């Protein structure tokens, strides 16, 4: 223990550069949030008095109802599918296990306008019922543009968060407990409620919290379905009323909701730990389903796969064949280049920061590095609309302080060089999704451990050389996993990109949203399918890397 402590103190003296960079990143991630929270200290204007009296309560109710309903149904579907595919074997189980992950490739706002158009009076579903089956249906049965419809959309396209985390936990940690329950004669239903649910509560809460953050971050679904959430209100106040002060106050209110969700998650997961075997256990043996149970498992799995992936993608493909020639031109190719430039730029920077921060956190664990890692990860829990206001304020302040330099360079006295530039957008995306890369690399470091790097340091190698010669070759899988998942998130991101993109800088996400807002749903199919294509490739690579790491 004394040798280890001495080594860590020696290491702390030799790798200050890693900590400095990690600290700068943490400070950069903290600044936008501080600006938002300090917005509550100013004097409110007349618009805020009107919003507080007549609208604020509705914003809170709609946001909490949407979040709560989505969390409940995603947990029901995600946990059920995780248990079904982990504990039982039935026809097409492997295919369904893969299909259950693919909804992550479809942004909810794309699914929202796809389903809304499909189920409308002139949509494919009602047209088929009228023309082919001669049925006249009640329009209320197909009214998806409501709170219930929004909860359905979010549930179908966010349940993989709960499914993946719960399934991974059950595959690695539940075999001994479930097999013992089976030996004691417990029925499957009793095992599920008495063993599986209590055992996986931490994983379920973790997945549900990600779902809650995604719902609170949403703008496209709520706007298209006419639901007055906090994010929609921020957009309206900022761009409709041109009242930045009130938008900041709404953002601060939403941040308080986010903090509340985070506190609830911590409380639910507190002390929810157990002691398993220290030896590597065999995976849970799946039981083969026959007859009626097998049919029910296939029908339920097929219904989820159809609603969450197959039907919307098939409909988008049909629409794309109608409008591809009208949509595809030089500007569309430029949109793809913009999307890739933005995504690769942001993800490359955030992965470098993630690796530096994770290495500093691994090599010298202290309160300072713990705080820095939490600050670096906080951006993912901040909605894009909220973060964009803080980032814009920071960059406007920087431009104001550099006005003299701009004038000396011949750019003009009041020139906004950094504000509303690609650099600002990339900065915001790095803060927003740094947690994705950091968590992947940090998990990789946990698997690698410190014995190899300690041996390298004892042999006289420095921190940086040890990292590149020893750690990085063993972390390639984790770094690539973080890069893939962060790339997917950046490509799908709408609120932050919509607010902070430079003038005349369209991406696939913003163009799909613009088409949908202009009621050009069929034209929106082509950019939507390209986004989904990027997502499918990313998900497939993620699954392949996961299987490779587990071997």
Produce the secondary structure layout.
Blueprint: H1 2-14, H2 16-38, H3 46-54, H4 56-87, E1 88-89, H5 93-99, H6 108-118, H7 124-131, H8 147-173, H9 175-183, H10 188-199, H11 201-217, H12 220-225, H13 230-240, H14 244-269, E2 287-288, H15 291-327, H16 330-363, H17 367-377, H18 384-401, H19 403-408, H20 422-448, H21 451-458, H22 463-492, H23 495-500, H24 508-517, H25 521-550
Tell me what you see in this structure.
The protein is mostly helical. 78% of the residues lie in helices and 1% in strands. The protein has 25 helices and two strands. It has a two-stranded parallel ribbon. Helix 2 crosses helix 18 and helix 11 runs antiparallel to helix 14. The protein is globular and about 80 Å long. It starts with a helix and ends with a helix.
Describe this protein with a few key phrases.
disordered N terminus, globular, 551 residues, 25 helices, two-stranded parallel ribbon, 1% strand, mainly alpha
Question: What order do the strands of the largest sheet run in, or round the barrel if closed?
Answer: 1-2
Name the helicity range.
over 70%
Q: Radius of gyration over alpha carbons?
A: 25 Å
Q: What is the end-to-end distance?
A: 33 Å
pLDDT < 50 runs, ≥5 residues: 1-15
From the spread of the alpha carbons, the general shape counts as globular
Return the string of H and E elements.
Answer: HHHHEHHHHHHHHHHEHHHHHHHHHHH
Quantity of strands, as a count: 2
Would you tell me the overall average pLDDT? 83
> What structural class results from the helix and strand content?
mainly alpha
With helices defined by DSSP (H or I, 4 residues minimum), what is the helix count? 25
The profile of the biggest β sheet is: 2 strands, parallel
User: DSSP strand (E) fraction?
Assistant: under 5%
